[in-house]
Amino acid sequence: MSVKRFFLTQILFLLILSSCGNSEESTSTPTSHATEISTTTTTTTTTTTTTTTTTTTTTTTTTLAPEPPAISDLLSSSYPLNIAHAGGDQDYPHSTMYAFKQAVAKGADMLEMDLRVTADGVLVVHHDETVDGTTGTSGIVSEMTVGELQALDNAWWWSPTCWPCRDLSEEDYPLRGVRTGNAPPPDGFTSEDFRIETFFDIASAFPEMPLDVEIKDEGALASEAITALISDIDALGRHDSVIVASFSSDVITEFKQAAPNIATSPGTDEMVAWVLNGEPLGDHAAVQVPPFYGDVEVLVPSFFEAAETAGVDVWVWMSDTSQENYDYYLELVSMGADGIINGRPEAMEQVSLGKN
Question: On the CB side of 157, how many CA atoms lie within 13 Å of its CA?
Answer without folding.
Answer: 17
